[in-house]
User: Fold this.
Amino acid sequence: MWWEIYLNDSEFRYYEELLAHAAEMRTYFQVPGDRNARARLLTFTAGRLVAPLYNYQPPRTFAQAIGDLRQEIEK
Assistant:
C-alpha cells in the first residue's frame, strides 16, 4: 500500500523524500564542519530532492527545496 501511494501521489512522494533528505543532512551536521561545507551540502541535497527522477507534479523548484529542507532541519 505504501509503495502504491508513493508511486501515484506526487505530494506524498515529495514529503517522504523531504523527510529522508533532511534526516541525512541532520546526520552530516552532527559532524563538526564549517558553514561553507554545510551550505554546499544543502545545495547538493536540494538538487537531489528536485531531480527529474522523482517526477513531481507539479515540479518543485530548487528554491522551494532549499526552503523546505531548511524548515525541516530546524524542527
In short: The chain is about 70% helix and 0% strand.
